[in-house]
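Continuing the series of single-chain predictions for the mutant panel. This is the parent chain; the variants come on the following pages.
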Amino acid sequence: MRLAPLFGVLGALLYGIVGYYLGVSIVGTYQLTTASGPVVWTATIAGMVVGYFLAPWLIIAPARAARNFLRSVPMDDLVAATIGLAVGLLIAALLAYPISRLPPPFGGILPLVAVLIFGYLGATVMTLRKADFFSLLRPVERQATAAERMAGQPLLLDTSVIIDGRIADVADTGFLMGKLLAPRFVLNELQYIADSADPLRRNRGRRGLEMLDRLQQNPDVEIEFIDLDPQDAQQVDDKLISLALELGGAIITNDYNLNRIARLQGVTILNINELANAVKSVFLPGEEMPIRIIQAGKEVGQGVGYLDDGTMVVVENGRQYLNQEVLVQVTKVLQTNAGRLVFATPEPNNLS
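Parent structure:
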């Protein structure tokens, strides 16, 4: 605002001149007589007053808006847009002479149109393809192995996998080799769930916050909370996908829909449910194993037990061994959408 008086004076001079010529055009003469003089001087003074108060607002407000906008634009976007604009203007300059040779009115209009079009296209295309452009400037590196790529790949945490809690147990095993990233918009959604009026949702949200604290306290886990918030998406899932594409990272989730949509867009997905199913014990028909029958099955005489990894074992004629540990023989194994289901029959000699 220190330049406002200067802009006011310049505006008063400019608008005063405009007011003078406006008054002259009204009276139709440059001769200042008793009839024409008051009109011309009134128009001039009115123009100076309007210019003094209007010029600072017309100059300072757009300048402040432009400054705030440039502060919010990432540096790589700004550099890419500047390079693209320069290339677009160069192309327009090369085409200006042959276009200007066209017959009127095209020769006088099309060069300006070419400047606007190629300048806009250059800045837009370079901004959208900035990653490809900057990658051309980097030196060629050797092809990294799969383990090296995974170790350097950021892992974005989804709300569902934080609430689930098993990610903390997986992290304790040391199988997560990349840096864990928790975006701010995921934390906001988690806090919204924790503040819910529904007791179940509130408990789920609080458990998610506890899991984040547990991950943060783990010295073997590198976790970072980032403020990046893609403006080209509104929903949390869409923002995660956009952020993963921008950072070249993977998403850890339990969400089935996010899993499918992200993979269609080429984003690497680490699904905790798929991991849990993959590491469950594998049994073949005819194998024997001990199992504790803890409840009755749906069919008559059936008993149900569970392995340490949560796999359900349905034991035919096992109800009689309720609350006992028996030796059973696997008869068949079924893979369902909910996981692996094992059917077995009790051996004559139980372990009770």
